[in-house]
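Usage

Read records sequentially. Each one opens with the input sequence:
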Amino acid sequence: SFNYSACLEIAILNHRNNIVEWLLDQHESNPSNELYIACSSSGNIEATILLFQRGIPFPEESQVFPHMIQNGFYRLVRFFTEIFPGVIPSSIYMDPKIMINSHSLSIFKLFPKAVVPDMLYYAIERNDLYFVDYLVNNTNLLFPSKENYFSIYSLSLPLSSPEMFNYLIQKVPIESTKEFFDLKDYQSLLLIAISHSKLKEVELLTAAVLDKDKNCDFTPYYNKAVSSHLIEICDFFAKKKVVLHIDELILNEHLYSV
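and closes with the structure output:
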């Protein structure tokens, strides 16, 4: 049997809008408003307009706009923001996962109120340097505070490639953090760097730790490096002649395999 809505959905998804218009003209009854979801998933602005012209009611915003934004359909998003201001709820465009996953600065710029700290943090987590660079240079999200700077450092350290961390320490040099971070903050970051085998970052953070306390006990960090078989980091600690407690180190069963 002929499935009217299914045919419309296929035509919408494939941007066969002449067929969409023809099918809409063949039936007096309105099809399901779930067809708007097909429009948002495929970025089909022409079909969206056709559905509106037929007076087909719009479904729940949460069913349509997240797909539209995350798929990066700028023209379709702009259509709604211009024709129906306020129709896209702030809970959607201020959601970092939805906005950053769009990979579209053009869409982001349509929503000035979307500039929230979590937007920068999620962009860092996603290793989206393109988005991070825009946020850093065009918003005030890199404001100086202990929480903000610590989040920036701690989120960029675990990333597999060093580009993000290197970029951020140019914007927020380690020297800029000294008035905000205490010894425990640097120790926490050092542990993250060791956990992710980041030698250069370990070198940087070790200097910051020693600047706070020249007699800091590095035994826990050496043990962590030993347990993870990170020979270069172990060698670095040895060459720096950091404080180590031998009586604790000899209890580490991994020490003899390094």
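Summary fields computed downstream for this record:
- The chain has a mean pLDDT of 90.
- Residues 199-212 form the longest helix (14 residues).
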